[in-house]
Amino acid sequence: MVVGASFAGLACALALARAGVRVSIVERKSDPGEKLHTTGILVRDLIDAVPLLQEIPPSLVRRVNAVRLYAPNLASIDLAAPGYYFLATDTPEVLRWLAGRAVQAGAELRCGTLFRGAQAVRGGYELGNRLGRTGFIVGADGPASRVAKVLGLGQNRHFLAGIEHEYLGAELAAPGYLHCFIDRRLMPGYIGWLVQGVRGVQVGLARRLRAPGAGDARTAMQGLLAKLAPIADFRGRAVDAVRAGLIPCGGLVHPVARARALLVGDAAGLVSPVTAGGIHTALLHGLAAGGAVADFLGGRSADPQREFIGTYPRFRLKRMLRFAFDHFQADWIFNLALASAPMRWAAGRIYFHQRAVVLESAAEVRRFEAR
Ligand SMILES: Cc1cc2nc3c(=O)[nH]c(=O)nc-3n(C[C@H](O)[C@H](O)[C@H](O)COP(=O)(O)OP(=O)(O)OC[C@H]3O[C@@H](n4cnc5c(N)ncnc54)[C@H](O)[C@@H]3O)c2cc1C
User: Fold this and answer.
1) Distance of CA 130 to the CA centre of its chain
2) What are the distances in angstroms from CA 154 to CA 116, 138, 313?
């Protein structure tokens, strides 16, 4: 039984079904693409690491080759890395496509079904809500995991709060960039963003949950829209969809597994505390978890709680960087030093996992966009 039909749960169920395990996915929403809480940007490393993603229909993705990073005073630099790109996605459709792949492989998808509780019994769990019995539970039910709570597993305690507006049919003047904004007053602990998506423009921000004196995320969103007006003015325009949710940023929860049960994705805290990206790890570790559970149920390996969970990232360095950003973020440093070599180096590592190239001219930008 996999709880949650999003990136982690669908990837896990797909791997289980492909390995010949009888698997059900329970999802409380009536459809995996409904009411999303993510921008849905995929990084190139993920596309390379997961061959399945190379089969996403091209109409569901849009390539973004460069990052335009703005200091609090809106001075900006353009960064790119040779061969690197991001994919903006039509996320509801990508999730429906992924669900289709899991079902095609043999998984049963039970939408509109809430996981409420489970009782340990010999050889597995008895589930409430007329769900029957299972030999293994995978909790892929997001940041505030019910599976973790019910089974006494570790729960996320540190969060960013994210909110995003989608403006269908809108077009940016500079659509080739992921535009990122630093501003401690509006987005303490993280950034704001603006991206030309597949179906329109997505504008969003994330910030430390309950940052003292910083107001709520919705008010900050109004502040961000006002700030962005010289670049793209969405004030007064009707919002087509709002995506909002919590982003765990405290690293791996503990314990993340027990006999015949494990957590994966946001439920496990598998989100980079620096970039707040979790789709990458949800998919990669979701697939791997499905393989490990299938091996265990097939008698080929020990319960994943013994060895497999040792492959989950601990984010030690990234948690230190988060601590530094939480405690020492200062707008004046970015206003003063955005274009400096150390700042460019750090931005390159964070966005591209390698040294970034600064795009100095329009011709260079066009060259990157053509790649
Ligand atoms: C505003 C915002 C923007 C983001 N943008 C990005 C981005 O661009 N790139 C990126 O990599 N990451 C991004 N993230 C993070 C990313 O969305 C998550 O890391 C990712 O969605 C985690 O996937 P998941 O499958 O673990 O969990 P989730 O996507 O949270 O899915 C959990 C699923 O479980 C279901 N569920 C929950 N409880 C139950 C229950 N009791 N019974 C049945 N079903 C249940 C939910 O309905 C949901 O479908 C963003 C997050 C936010 C909030």
Assistant:
1) 31
2) 17, 14, 15
Cα separation, 70 vs 180, in Å, equals 6
Q: Is 2 helix (H, G, I), strand (E, B) or coil?
A: strand
User: How many domains are contained in the chain?
Assistant: 1
Q: Cα(244)–Cα(29) distance, rounded to whole angstroms?
A: 16
The per-residue DSSP string of 281-339 comes to HHHHHHHHHHHHHHHHHTTSS--TTTTGGGGS---HHHHHHHHHHHHH--HHHHHHHTT
Residue 281 sits in a domain of what CATH number?
A: 3.50.50.60
98: containing domain: 2-370
Ligand 1 site-directed mutation target among 12, 28, 30, 38, most atoms within 8 Å of CB: 38
Mutate to test the pocket of ligand 1, among 145, 247, 253, 285 (most ligand atoms within 8 A of CB): 247
Sheet with 61-64, strands from edge to edge, namely: 42-43, 86-89, 61-64
Dihedral sign of CA atoms 118, 299, 268, 57 in order:
negative
pLDDT of 157-196, one tens digit each?
Answer: 999 999 999 999 999 999 999 999 999 999 999 999 999 9
Structure tokens at 139: 């909790």
Helix (H, G, I), strand (E, B) or coil at 142: coil
Could you tell me what percent of the chain has a pLDDT over 90?
A: 76
Q: Model pTM?
A: 0.94
What is the rounded CA–CA span in Å between residue 347 and residue 116? 42
Q: Is 196 helix (H, G, I), strand (E, B) or coil?
A: strand
Tens digit of each residue's pLDDT (9 = 90 or more) over 301-324: 999 999 999 999 999 888 888 888
Pocket of ligand 1 (CB under 6 A): 3-9, 26-29, 37-41, 114-115, 140-142, 146, 162, 164, 204, 243, 245, 247, 265-266, 271, 277-280, 282
Q: Report whether the peptide linkage leading into residue 72 is cis, meaning its omega lies within 30 degrees of zero.
A: no
- Mean pLDDT calculated for residue range 276-299: 96
**How far, in Å, CA of 333 to CA of 339, rounded?**
11
Angle CA 82–98–199, to nearest 5: 65
